[in-house]
Amino acid sequence: MSRNVTVTTENYPIARAFTISRGSKTEAQVLVCTIFDGAHRGRGECVPYSRYGESLESVAAQIAQMEQAIAAGITRAQLLTAMPAGAARNAIDCALWDLEAKMTGLRAHRVACKLPPRPVETTYTISLGDPEDMADQARAAAGRKLIKVKVGSDRDVARLHAVAAAAPNAHFILDANEGWTEQNIRENLLAAAHYRVVLVEQPLPAGADTILNDIPHPVPICADESVHTADDLPALQGLYDAINIKLDKAGGLTAALELRDRARELGFSIMVGCMVGTSLAMAPAVLLAQGAEFVDLDGPLLLARDRAPALHYSGSIVSPPDAALWG
């Protein structure tokens, strides 16, 4: 039976401005790909990212270019070679996972996971700002065990001092979003080791990070912008201790599972992250996050409202998706 594809743009306001070293935004703009076979609908959500040259329009156009292949029944495995990694492939891949689950009655986790999926504990992200503002954010989140702190600008040591004092029982992940330099990375890493930081994410720009092979890692360092697919891993050995896998970078759950397994073989720790999106984008990532050392799937927690039905969050604990949402 032929399949048809629709792509819709949806906007979700963010509870407060979300700021990283590259800028701020006040809403999450997502694309939802729906594949309909006449009886069942599969959905996948993606978040185009300008850092990788993506826009809502370009990603929608990429999905539209695949309409004939999807109508002809392209498989997830075939999709890996038919499209490059990125948000468009992610949306189609996750929609195919969801469609397959609905067509067969076999939940996606039965295919994606070796064991029945369990709830996982996510970080909670506080935005980049001045130290006083970030201390206020940390104080509001102080009951959470793990807080992700956006840094990557001047005064990062002061920011870290402020948030550590405001959340004295928490541990932290620092995410510099490529914002540190060769001149300040050593000082910042030493401060991280002092202030209960368990991971530092992408301190230097992708492609300008070879210095990581020559300096101490008092705190484990995680690649984000430097890693998209399994092909990137060999060049990261010796530079990074962990990798952050995001479905929008890897180009879907199928490729992300391959990336995770290969990274394990090479000795990397695993972080599963996200863009700021809704529960539909997080749902397949929860399956990927089973057994991960670090989970950063707080996108819906940062929104003023989520879609319905949604994932269930209890504090920082997020449960696997129900079939009504995805998979």
* Strand arrangement in the largest pleated sheet: 5-6-7-8-9-10-11-12
| Strand and helix order | EEEHHHHHEEHEHEHEEEHHEHEEE
CATH architectural label of the largest domain: Alpha-Beta Barrel
The level-1 CATH class of the largest domain? Alpha Beta
CATH topology of the largest domain: TIM Barrel
Structural category is alpha/beta
Please tell me about this protein's structure.
This protein is of the alpha/beta class. It has two domains: 108 residues, Enolase-like, N-terminal domain (Enolase-like, domain 1), CATH 3.30.390.10; 205 residues, TIM Barrel (Alpha-Beta Barrel), CATH 3.20.20. 31% of the residues lie in helices and 23% in strands. It has eleven helices and 14 strands. Strands 5-6-7-8-9-10-11-12 form an eight-stranded parallel sheet. It has a three-stranded antiparallel sheet with strand order 1-2-3. It has a three-stranded antiparallel sheet with strand order 4-14-13, with no helix packed on it. Helix 1 packs across helix 4. It is globular and about 60 Å long. The model has no long low-confidence stretch (mean pLDDT 96).
Task: Offer a concise description of the structure.
This protein is an alpha/beta fold.
Summary keywords:
Enolase-like, domain 1, 14 strands, three-stranded antiparallel beta sheet, single chain, 327 residues, TIM Barrel
